[in-house]
Amino acid sequence: MKMLGAFLLVAVLLTGCSEEPEPTGQTFDSDSRSTGLSTGCENSFRAAAQVDPMQDTLKDLYPLFDHCTSIKDWKIGDQAFPEALDGAAIRPLIKTMCRTHKPLKDAVLCLKL
């Protein structure tokens, strides 16, 4: 009789553990990284990070200048997608690109410098 009671207790405990959690109504992308960046900035960093390192050029970073308008955005993006900047120092990279790449001369970030 004790054996039956123990078996029932274990069965009840296992049944309680196997219930699926209640749905919350939230969905998450499996590749989503919660960065706090604007969608455009985050997508630009994600795209730059996905470029083949053997084929990337500085032009791959141009969208960052359109969508990431502060040094803070760049720092957050670099932390979330380190492959995008490959360890480059952010401020010198931005200053150099703003000064030497004519298509970036009117970018919001370049105008702030």
Cα end-to-end separation: 81 Å
User: Which descriptor suits the 3D outline?
Assistant: globular
Number of strands: 0
Q: What Rg, in angstroms, do the CA atoms define? A: 24 Å
Q: Portion of residues in helices?
A: 40-55%
List unreliable stretches of 5+ residues: 1-15, 17-32
Features:
113 residues, mainly alpha, 6 helices, 0% strand, disordered N terminus
What does the model show?
This protein is mainly α. The protein has a domain at 36-113. Helices cover 53% and strands 0% of the residues. It is built from 6 helices and no strands. The chain has helices at 2-17, 39-50, 62-67, 71-80, 90-100, 108-112. It starts with a helix and ends with a helix.
Summarize the structure.
The protein has helices at residues 2-17, 39-50, 62-67, 71-80, 90-100, 108-112. It is an all-alpha fold.
What topology emerges from the helices and strands here?
Layout: H1 2-17, H2 39-50, H3 62-67, H4 71-80, H5 90-100, H6 108-112
